[in-house]
């Protein structure tokens, strides 16, 4: 993707370069296993786990591994609301099963039931829930070497690193900048504009979503130009230094809205776009 279709003038806002039967539920009142899995990390299930060797989240899947001598014919996964989330019949000798979570599941506790016939022979509970945190915000002008080559206005764009400290995957769907920046992205708050760059993204709307798995981080790049002084709805440089604050907002399908505040300083300049800009926590 290139941005050669865009031009910048002093008073043009560049807002974008911008049901199923529940088999074996009679055992659902058995004692819970409070262990928690993560991306590729096994839960240390004990208690009544029986033939369930480990239950974990790997990428976008819930993965169940069975003991070597397991005689499990069926696996049921029960969602946090008590309804059947998914089910699999297992052939003899199968020791691993995967259930697709994706990025639109209901967060909470999932119970995995191991069945032989209609008898429950083991169960395990796993909390699956993302927890997104913004850990870095950078001005493109200060991180040019980290930006994709396809971006033309790197110095005016932003990078944001998001960390998923939870136990389940999520998908980032929107990136906003509010407050004392040269180009606030208030126009992106509604509609189908994500404001996030991607190699195959529409150069006006951005990508639909960026998946982020548990216990991982993703650095995303803005399609909008929050640090462009060509916008007429933000900060201009002045003959005296200025300081203020702004907020970065990341929206996701499951965790909702995550925000981070940063301080911003502008040096003095005789030109409206000639000052140096720095940000800090």
From TrEMBL:
Residues 36-46 have a biased composition (Polar residues). Residues 28-51 are annotated as: Disordered. This is Uncharacterized protein. It comes from Haloprofundus marisrubri.
